[in-house]
Design brief:
The complex is a heterodimer of chains A (537) and B (394). Chain A is built from 18 helices and 12 strands. With 537 residues, chain A is of the alpha+beta class. Chain A folds into 3 domains: 124 residues, no CATH class; 115 residues, no CATH class; 164 residues, no CATH class. Chain B has 394 residues and is α/β, with parallel strands linked by helices. The chains are: A alpha+beta (537), B alpha/beta (394).
Chain lengths: 537, 394
């Protein structure tokens, strides 16, 4: 496994070298725009020689049609309708509304921008490379004969999926909206939740070829400035050709790349991200994906759901405990079964032992192999079901359940108790979605340890996991906070979820200096109407 | 840097696996390879000096659970294997000639000793059961009135396994408090004591037509590891009163006007025993506090009034007193200190004990009991008056 990781790092280092070469070839484009329109167009046409979707529209405008201009855009990337309405029409016809003697210099890009263009999102570019960047980002480029500068105009609308309920984080109670692939819409969704001037949205562009917009979103007065500085530093380190998903960013900035535990959380839900930003965390939003990264992450976050805070605290606390139990079952279930039946039969109640023995009577495999087979079959089914289209996926589920549950027991390949253990494990593994990856890996490790050394092996594995967890950090925050190091006020939201009105302070491990500032008034406990209070008023 | 890290990770993984070398018992055994023993019987063989060991082994394929291939039917779910040997461990190992697999005795519910073995002395036979690491100290110890192998052969009606059935009979002693649950650990502790006499429930077989029924007929009393006699049900409860182990049970007393019976259910019982040495005489002050409910009456009298209660309480206290005395008389007869009076004296009069200890056998029959029973009826369950026509309305 580590050899594999090493290969990846080698591959990435080679990639860096390639990128250096690329930047050299890019240098050819970094020449200034000349006042000669023909010459500029020649350069651009040369660059897009083989790309048929780049439209270069040359036109004449002005009262006597004596000025020459060109509009360059990429079909479908820039909205044609808006280009026609807001750029071409004003230039070609709108100009006629002015009197001839009006002082507009049609060779100066500034005066055209100020007087004719009716779109707000525009910027001047003076280098060919900048021009190309804007063009590829979806802008329409207006080149004027005689001007050393070009105008990059961004048509507002962009094709994107509508806002839907996220598939990964469905809720019973709570907002149904989820992030989409368009990062600007996503930021707007966040702005709608947090209407505060302190909400900062810092932009970076990462990826030599993809030039992906990456935003760091945080609240200036709450977030720890050192955290933001660290994020900036780590993001700027990334030299890569393309960022296709926020997972790319995650893998380049995480604290422990060798750990099976994620140290950066992600979410598709604006309300969840907003809540985390309000606690002092920072969100990293990447264009092209609905998954927003949030740092720092703590282990406990995997067991918290937004609904915990929307539901009343009692039920939320029970569900929280059930999630913890389900994580334990999903990682340790098969391991404990194997350890008990192979090493510690004396720990099983007599009647249960007789039932297990009876079920295993015809099973030809050792319990360890039996457990591996079943787990493998389950993971296979899950993987097959996830990737397939929905109706086919269901069929796979039914076939799998029948084959695994019924037929294999009938055939005497698997004992019925093992089916129960594995299905309980499978169900439990879905209760903590954020730790499904780590849980699956741990399950196999613990199972192997149980097969080798029984309960002793499982305990050693657990200890190693705990040591590892306690050593993890996410952007300076201890991963197991507030349990290790112990923080009593933080424990309000770990094993049980205390009522909201008791949680008046922000998590200390995230905000550090700002933790004393209250996120809410500390005396918000609701109480019934009191006559005295009213009288005194 | 990457390489360095790899090496350190590999090192730590290697260290981690070294840990496994530290553990001693890495005995992986698949369940299929186990012969699960749920009961054992020890008898003497006809050949002098030999032991006949009977082990009740679960027949997994005949248990008949959900997957039920075969199962059910009249097939017995157990197999009584017996083997002979010079010692118990020898016999256990000899048994592999018949079973093929090693016996797995962690789930042994009960060890039953035959009458002949019990009379000869359990001392030498119990050693293996205390020493073997697989054996539980919580396994029950019982004595058969005749042969232990016959007890294990008697097929119970509701349970699948005779041994489980026997364990159940003993574990539910609280319904009557006519016997006491004794496990290996208790028995060994009594055996190690200088004076206390060990006890074990006594199993009797009743021939009921073709069926054999197992019945706990009382307690066997031991002295120096040898069985010396038997306590019947009432005597056993007399013993439990003193030990404070009475959970529940039935006390039958005549109704105040002697027209019928009043039946009481024991709800709660407490005991306190204080030894006293007075002018060289040993007196045990036994104070019993008992609470009961009126559970049944076979008379039309109205028992639910204070005067009737008082009388019933008095007679129930007398019943308890008689039971204790019966047990004590029996123990005097055996000269076996089943109550553990010796240990009580040892705790309170440790100086005097040094001299008492040596001739305890002479002293024990001279002990006097001062029994004070406080019996109380606290409720009459669902009825107050019996379902009978009112008197005086005729």
């Amino acid at each position: 496994m580590f050899g594999f990781i090493y290969k990846i790092t080698r591959y990435l280092s080679l990639k860096n070298k390639n990128m250096l070469q690329n930047t050299e070839s890019d240098k050819n484009n970094s020449e200034p725009i000349t006042p000669d329109l023909e010459k500029n167009l020649e350069v651009i046409k040369g660059i897009f020689r083989d790309s048929s979707d780049v439209t270069i529209h040359e036109f004449n405008f002005g009262h006597e049609r004596k000025f020459k201009g060109a509009l360059i855009f990429i079909d479908n990337l820039a909205n044609k309708e808006e280009i026609h309405k807001n750029i071409l029409q004003p230039l070609m016809y709108g100009v006629l509304l002015f009197r001839n003697n009006v002082d507009i210099d049609f060779t100066k890009i500034d005066s055209i921008r100020e007087n004719l263009i009716s779109m707000t999102d525009n910027s001047k570019v003076s280098m060919i490379s900048d021009l190309l960047d804007s063009l590829l980002a979806g802008s329409a480029i207006l080149l004027i004969d005689g001007s050393k500068e070009a105008l990059a105009i961004k048509p507002g609308k962009r094709e994107s999926r509508s806002i839907e309920e996220p598939g990964t984080e469905a809720v019973v109670r709570g907002p149904r909206e989820g992030f989409i692939e368009n990062v600007n819409v996503n930021i707007a969704l966040l702005r709608r939740k947090i209407k505060d001037t302190e909400l900062c949205v810092e932009k970076l562009v990462i990826g030599d070829k993809s030039k992906t917009d990456v935003y760091i979103v945080y609240i200036k007065s709450i977030a720890n400035p050192k955290l933001i500085e660290e994020i900036r530093k780590r993001l700027k380190r990334i030299k890569i050709e393309a960022i296709l998903e926020s997972g790319y960013i995650e893998q380049f900035i995480e604290d422990s790349p060798y750990s099976i535990f994620p140290t950066i959380s992600n979410s598709e839900k604006p309300d969840k991200v907003a809540a985390k930003i309000l606690e002092g965390r920072a969100a990293i939003m990447v264009d092209g994906t609905p998954f927003v990264l949030v740092v720092p992450m703590m282990f406990i976050e995997s067991f918290q759901s937004v609904e915990d805070y929307y539901a009343r605290p009692f039920f939320a606390s029970i569900i929280r405990v059930i999630r913890f139990l389900s994580y334990i079952i999903s990682t340790l279930g098969p391991a404990i079964y194997v350890a008990l039946t192979v090493f510690h039969q004396e720990l099983i109640p007599t009647q249960l032992l007789i039932s297990i023995a009876e079920g295993r009577e015809r099973v030809p495999f050792p319990a360890l192999l039996e457990a591996f087979l079943m787990l493998f079959a389950f993971d296979l089914l899950r993987e097959a079901g996830v990737r397939l289209p929905k109706p086919v996926g269901q069929t796979v589920g039914i076939v799998g359940a029948l084959v695994l549950g019924e037929a294999s027991v009938e055939a005497g390949l698997i004992s019925p108790i093992m089916v129960i253990v594995v299905s309980a494990t499978a169900i439990a593994s879905f209760a903590v979605p954020a730790q499904t990856d780590s849980g699956t890996i741990l399950r196999y490790i613990y199972l192997a340890l149980a097969g080798i050394a029984g309960g002793f092996g499982v305990i050693m594995g657990l200890l190693a996991t705990l040591l590892h967890l306690a050593s993890l950090r996410s952007f300076g925050t201890p991963y197991l906070w507030p349990v290790v190091p112990l923080d009593l006020s933080g424990l309000k939201d770990v094993f049980i979820r205390m009522p909201l009105w008791t949680m008046s302070k922000r998590p200390e491990a995230i905000t550090w200096d700002n933790c004393d500032s209250y996120s809410q008034s500390p005396d918000l406990m609701p109480s019934a109407y009191k006559k005295d209070d009213n009288d005194s008023k | 840097m990457g390489k360095k890290m790899n090496i350190s990770i590999i090192k730590s993984i290697l260290c981690f696996f070294l840990v496994f070398a530290l553990s001693g018992c890495l005995g992986a055994r698949e369940i299929n390879d186990l012969e699960i023993v749920i009961g054992m019987g020890v008898d003497k063989d006809e050949n002098a000096g030999n032991i006949l060991l009977t082990a009740q082994v679960v027949k997994e394929n005949a248990v008949g659970g959900a997957s039920g291939n075969g199962g059910g039917g009249d097939d017995e779910a157990y197999w009584n294997v017996s083997s002979k040997g010079e010692s118990i461990f020898d016999a256990v190992r000899q048994m592999t000639h018949k079973t093929g697999n090693r016996l797995f005795i962690s789930h042994n519910q009960a060890v039953i000793f035959g009458n002949d073995v019990a009379k000869e002395g359990l001392q030498e036979y119990i050693d293996f059961f205390l020493r073997a690491h697989e054996m539980r100290p919580a396994a029950l110890i019982l004595v058969a009135e005749d042969r232990a192998s016959d007890v294990l052969d008697a097929k119970p009606e509701t349970e699948k396994f005779p041994a489980m059935n026997i364990a159940k009979l003993v574990k539910t002693y609280g319904f009557t408090s006519h016997l006491y649950k004794v496990n290996m650990k208790d028995f060994a502790l009594w055996l190690m004591s200088d004076t206390t006499a060990p006890l074990a429930p006594l199993l009797t077989i009743i021939q009921n037509g073709e069926n054999k029924e197992i019945y706990v007929s009382g307690m066997a009393a031991f002295k120096n590891g040898k069985m010396v006699g038997k306590l019947n049900h009432d005597e056993s409860r007399g013993l439990l009163w003193v030990l404070g182990e009475v959970r529940s049970g039935v006390i039958i007393v005549p109704s105040p006007n002697e027209t019928g019976k009043a039946v009481l259910e024991i709800l709660k019982a407490k005991s306190k025993v204080t030894p006293e040495i007075k002018d060289g005489k040993i007196v045990m002050h036994i104070k019993i506090k008992e609470e009961s409910s009126l559970s049944e009456q076979s008379t039309t009298e109205n028992l639910a009034d204070d005067k009737a209660f008082e009388k019933i309480q008095k007679s129930s206290a007398e019943v308890i007193r008689q039971e204790i005395m019966a047990a004590f008389d029996k123990s005097r007869e055996f000269n076996a200190d089943i109550f553990g009076f010796g240990e009580m004296l040892h705790k309170k009069y440790s100086n005097e004990w040094k001299t008492l200890k040596d001739n305890w056998d002479e002293i024990y029959p001279t002990i006097e009991l001062n029994i004070d029973v406080e019996s109380k009826i606290i409720k009459t369950d669902l009825l107050k008056k019996p379902a009978a026509p009112k008197e005086g309305e005729k």
